[in-house]
């Protein structure tokens, strides 16, 4: 039985996909730690056969994520990379992909070092002006892959503009919505075919689980992706599904605070005499601020900045001195993190590619957490002194 829930975000975050356990009435979805399901007679089962194909805890989570993205279908995977892996497996040798030139390092790596050798061609282009896509489309282009905001340069890509081009040429369009989360941005509402999440980040929100997700409204795509999910088997386990389901219940509250703290940290950094440039889409001076205002309901808690001099040593010194902002890969958890993309998250991107997009040696990326803002600013102040 499906609960009647409104289409308001907070209510969906708490209730979508979750129903009282039919056996006991337990309000929290049980962790169905089982591989298999007993059948009365061959084929006569309750809709579950084997946990690679379906698991009730995973089903609840998939329904929850689908609801948050206003999607008909949600599919969860063992990591964000496993979700991207499933999308690329929709393609065949000879197919071409157009992707932004400022992508998560792991995405760049799976494209260039895993899938390129299977005969899929990847074209990395600037998407600051999406009309650039049209110049690179060929009859073999089968997928356009976009991240917005981008990681770590915080560029904003015009989703509606990309949808118009994708529709004109009948090319599939996927958006990695990890940074914005469905709380700030719903790409499917704008006509995108597939939304992807590293649920490791904001969706789970507590830095305790690695997971990926896809959402789509397209019946055929959902079928094909479910086939890949079951055939290739990069599924998430029931424990992890439970943790993400639990994290999602507070996604809207956490995001509100991430956005508030993000704005204050970005404003503080922009006024600091040692800092050259702060990358955050909430600034009016951000090149695609208007697009961000149009397609997002807030600007998030991810911020990058460089020093007046591009000096890696200076960046390292600040990173070593930060106390509350732990130096660690990943993002989107309740605790604030700092990161040196050039040597950490984006170590797989060649230096000349990095430099082209402004990913300098002194660039620091912050994932601003939900701590008290006074303490976060104090920490930055002492580290930058
Ligand atoms: C972390 C991340 C990924 C990869 O997700 P994993 O869960 O680490 O496999 C993909 N895209 C973006 C934008 C990310 O931040």
UniProtKB/TrEMBL annotation:
Lineage: superkingdom: Bacteria
Q: Name one Pfam family in it.
A: Cys_Met_Meta_PP
- GO biological-process terms attached to the record: cysteine biosynthetic process via cystathionine; transsulfuration
Sections of the chain in a coiled coil: none
The terms describing its cellular component in GO are:
cytoplasm
List residues, modification N6-(pyridoxal phosphate)lysine: 201
MF terms (GO), sorted A to Z: cystathionine gamma-lyase activity; cystathionine gamma-synthase activity; pyridoxal phosphate binding
Question: Which keywords does this Swiss-Prot/TrEMBL entry list?
Answer: Pyridoxal phosphate
- Cofactor(s), by name: pyridoxal 5'-phosphate
Please give the family membership noted in the entry. Answer: Belongs to the trans-sulfuration enzymes family.
Q: Which named protein is this?
A: Cystathionine gamma-synthase
This chain's source organism reads Roseivirga seohaensis subsp. aquiponti
């Amino acid at each position: 039985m499906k609960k009647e829930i409104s289409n308001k975000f907070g209510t969906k975050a708490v209730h979508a996909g979750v129903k009282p356990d039919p056996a006991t009435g337990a309000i929290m979805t049980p962790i169905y730690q089982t591989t298999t399901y007993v059948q009365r007679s061959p084929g006569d089962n309750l809709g579950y056969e084997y946990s690679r194909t379906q698991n009730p805890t995973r089903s609840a989570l998939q329904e929850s994520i689908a609801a948050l993205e206003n999607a008909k279908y949600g599919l969860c995977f063992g990591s964000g990379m496993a979700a991207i892996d499933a999308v690329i497996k929709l393609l065949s040798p000879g197919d071409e992909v157009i992707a932004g030139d400022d992508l998560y390092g792991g995405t760049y790596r799976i494209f260039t070092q895993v899938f390129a050798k299977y005969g899929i061609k990847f074209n990395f282009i600037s998407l600051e002006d999406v009309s650039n896509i049209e110049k690179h489309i060929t009859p073999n282009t089968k997928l356009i892959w976009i991240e917005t905001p981008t990681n770590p340069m915080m560029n904003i890509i015009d989703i509606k503009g990309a949808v118009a081009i994708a529709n004109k040429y009948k090319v599939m369009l996927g958006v990695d919505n990890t940074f914005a989360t469905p709380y700030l941005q719903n790409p499917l509402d704008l006509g995108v075919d597939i939304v992807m999440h590293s649920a490791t980040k904001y969706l789970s929100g507590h830095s305790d689980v690695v997971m990926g997700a896809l959402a789509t409204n397209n019946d055929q795509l959902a079928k094909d992706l479910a086939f890949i999910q079951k055939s290739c088997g990069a599924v998430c386990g029931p424990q992890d599904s439970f943790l993400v389901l639990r994290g999602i219940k507070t996604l809207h509250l956490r995001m509100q605070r991430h956005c508030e703290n993000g704005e204050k940290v970005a404003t503080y950094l922009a006024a600091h005499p040692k800092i050259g440039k702060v990358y955050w889409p909430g600034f009016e001076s951000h090149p695609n601020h208007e697009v961000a205002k149009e397609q997002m309901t807030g600007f998030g808690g991810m911020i990058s900045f460089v020093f007046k001099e591009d000096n890696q040593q200076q960046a390292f010194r600040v990173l070593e001195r930060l106390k509350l902002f732990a130096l660690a890969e990943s993002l989107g958890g309740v605790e604030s993190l700092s990161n040196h993309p050039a040597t950490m998250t984006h170590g797989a991107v060649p230096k000349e590619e990095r430099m082209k997009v402004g990913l300098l040696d002194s660039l620091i990326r912050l994932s601003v957490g939900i701590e008290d803002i006074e303490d976060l600013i104090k920490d930055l102040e002492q580290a930058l002194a």
